[in-house]
Write a structure and sequence with these properties.
Elements lengths: L3 E3 L2 E2 H7 L6 H21 L2 E5 L7 E5 L6 E7 L16 H6 L3 E6 L8 H17 L1 H4 L1 E11 L1 H15 L6 E7 L14 H4 L3 H6 L2 H4 L7 E6 L4 H15 L4 E6 L9 H4 L5 H9 L9
Parallel strand pairs: 5-6, 5-7, 7-8, 8-9, 9-10
Antiparallel strand pairs: 1-2, 3-4, 4-6
Helix pairs in contact: 4-6
Amino acid sequence: MTEKIYLDYTRDELDAQYTNVKNDADAATQKRLQSHSADVAERLATSRDLSYGDHPSNRFDLYRAEGPPGPVIVFTHGGQWQRGSTTASCGWAEAALSHGISFVAGTFPMIPEVRLPEMVDHATALVRHVRAQADELGVDRKRICIAGHSSGAHLAAATLVRLANEGDLDGIVCGMTVSGNYDMRPLMLSYRQDFMQLDDAETIAMSPLLTLDKPMPPMQVAHGAAESDEFKRQASTWHAALAEQGETKLVAVPQANHFDVFLGLEDPAAPLWDFLTGHLGTSTAHAAE
């Protein structure tokens, strides 16, 4: 079909914009990310399969940095809201530890077991659990960063917007969303509507870009420079909306696709860490010790 259904895209073109594994090279980078993350979890996770709620999938792994309670990144993985685990993309926890930053890799019930609004509830519950149990976990409840990748970036953004709108940002000093979708309207015109099945009201309610109302903590918005035009547009539009509320930084990781983008985080000296260490109150020099 040649009918334009969104911006200048036909349905087939829009589907392609929101397809992240298009060829063998994409599949290879996804496999590398998953393999590296599993290795990091095996070597460095302090505690595995901890619970943050009543649902069996309310689980997280903790990477506890050495020393007194310090900052923590609470991270939600991607997987098109349908798949993934605590070890899906946690490889950059190793770099976090080198900066003296603890790392929480969370997972949650997914589609089709639950719908997207419930997934946001679970992602929000993870953040509130870490904050409430900070002493037990050995982290600083006053230095929390909320982060996510891909569909997990959407969940992180939706969680941050909810907490901001509810006046519940205590202790959350920054956020980072990587290669996410923040306006769900084009997705609901693509193949993703087949499994997400959001009605018009839910599409608006589940779009962080459209529900952002209150000032947010400082935010870093990252994407791969080799990602699709729609993923780039989602990032730049989200960044622009955040800029109207406060501090935000937009970063394109050079030559990176949807999965290689983590090469901008797995290296402790990578530029993306400047924002994180600055707001979490650690020194980039820590990584060289």
